[in-house]
Automatic annotation (TrEMBL):
<protein>
    <submittedName>
        <fullName>Chalcone-flavanone isomerase</fullName>
    </submittedName>
</protein>
<dbReference type="InterPro" id="IPR016088">
    <property type="entry name" value="Chalcone_isomerase_3-sand"/>
</dbReference>
<dbReference type="Pfam" id="PF16036">
    <property type="entry name" value="Chalcone_3"/>
</dbReference>
<dbReference type="InterPro" id="IPR016087">
    <property type="entry name" value="Chalcone_isomerase"/>
</dbReference>
<dbReference type="GO" id="GO:0016872">
    <property type="term" value="F:intramolecular lyase activity"/>
</dbReference>
<keyword id="KW-0413">Isomerase</keyword>
<dbReference type="InterPro" id="IPR036298">
    <property type="entry name" value="Chalcone_isomerase_sf"/>
</dbReference>
<keyword id="KW-0732">Signal</keyword>
<feature type="signal peptide">
    <location>
        <begin position="1"/>
        <end position="22"/>
    </location>
</feature>
<feature type="domain" description="Chalcone isomerase">
    <location>
        <begin position="24"/>
        <end position="190"/>
    </location>
</feature>
Length: 196
């Protein structure tokens, strides 16, 4: 199938990312590098999360070194960050439920049991923001020896989640065996989508 013009432009922009400062995906500005915990992180991949035909958000994954496998992403050292830029208004309750469903589908039962307390706290975070508006940005950042912090529009919300397994479980929402959007998984791994 032929790629839409926006997709072609994204692929071209991604190929030129070393010279570009930012990429535009569906109106969301995606920087090719960001700072996290005094470390420069590179854009590993980005794409649009579709629900049926609706664009929900743009996801962008940042790492210290680019990786094209899930194992590489999980094991690469240093800080990591996944950013979601909303493309439509979504109630935080709906988004929270979607996150927890993604975790359920991609995390072993024993692993979930170990992280139950952190998942309960994570679910409660969404109740602190009644609605996410188009243009709002959620960032989930892993910092070694600190943990995972969540930010909404640059403001930290909730507690720090200390366990790296928690951050990896969050990443698997998009990168696991049953990702929320298989085309988006390919894009986060640095590839391009064939069917949008």
């Amino acid at each position: 199938m032929k790629l839409p013009i926006k997709e072609l432009l994204f692929c071209l922009a991604f190929a030129l990312a070393s010279t570009a400062q930012a990429i535009d995906i569906a109106g969301a500005k995606i920087d090719d590098t960001i700072q996290a915990s005094n470390t420069k992180l590179k854009l590993n991949g980005a794409g649009i999360r579709y629900k049926v035909i609706f664009k929900v958000y743009v996801a962008a994954l940042y790492l210290t070194e680019t990786q094209n496998t899930v194992e590489g992403i999980i094991s690469v050292p240093g800080p990591k960050q996944i950013n979601l830029t909303m493309l439509r208004d979504v109630s935080s309750d709906t988004l929270g439920q979607a996150f927890m469903a993604g975790v359920q589908k991609n995390t072993e039962k024993a692993e979930r049991a170990k992280l139950t307390t952190q998942f309960i706290q994570f679910g409660q975070l969404f109740s602190t923001v009644p609605e996410l508006k188009k243009g709002d940005m959620i960032a989930m950042e892993w910092v070694p020896n600190v943990g995972t912090n969540m930010f909404i529009n640059g403001r930290k919300v909730g507690e720090t989640f200390p366990d790296m397994a928690f951050f990896n479980a969050i990443l698997r929402i998009w990168l696991g065996e049953n990702p929320v959007d298989s085309a988006l998984k390919k894009q986060l791994l640095g590839g391009s989508s064939e069917h949008h």
